[in-house]
Amino acid sequence: MAVIHRTTMKPGKLELLAGWLPTRPWYAGASAAPDLARAGGFRIDDPDGEVGIEFMVVTDASGGEPVAYLVPLTYRGAPLEGAAEGLVGTSEHGVLGTRWIYDGAHDPVLTERLLALLRGAAEPQDQNVSGVPDPTVVPETAEDALPAGAAVAAVEDGPEGTRLVVEAGGRRLGLELVRVLEAGRTDPGALGRVTAGWELPDGTRPRGAVAVLHEG
């Protein structure tokens, strides 16, 4: 079980993301200086207890309409070899010391746990309270779509979002991380999805798919 510490991080997550988000090909904002706020998310435990895993949602209010982004993050006590492309930044944690923070699409621990969540072998956890499941996060997958040996073989980051190429039982699937969230998105015909909610600046709480599994 991951332990969530009530302490400081310097720089904070939003400060790091404000500099990182505009560098992403899927960033939809018109400003290079987003106005970010926390808007929701959830966690998944690392069974080995080494890597913090958070699926964070932030809203950017710098434009005419707020934009909600999904930012899966991992927190590590040392650099992840071969993952420099996915490094968001480093931060000083008040209890754990220096943490290397990665875009989770480039971290094999997060992608493995996301696949486990989709096949029912992992449970979504509350974003802010240790050891508390989050029943508002709903994974759904077609039967046998993701066998236990399924693994992410490649990461494709482009203007439309991030696609994880999944090899599963001799088949190739595409797992989309929905970077720019859309209220009510369900993707009929998909092999699977993870649905969650978030909060907009006006207090409304939409729901939609945050990850979608497709054939091919």
From TrEMBL:
<keyword id="KW-0547">Nucleotide-binding</keyword>
<dbReference type="Pfam" id="PF18085">
    <property type="entry name" value="Mak_N_cap"/>
</dbReference>
<keyword id="KW-0808">Transferase</keyword>
<keyword id="KW-0067">ATP-binding</keyword>
<feature type="domain" description="Maltokinase N-terminal cap">
    <location>
        <begin position="20"/>
        <end position="107"/>
    </location>
</feature>
<dbReference type="InterPro" id="IPR040999">
    <property type="entry name" value="Mak_N_cap"/>
</dbReference>
<keyword id="KW-0418">Kinase</keyword>
<protein>
    <submittedName>
        <fullName>1,4-alpha-glucan branching protein</fullName>
    </submittedName>
</protein>
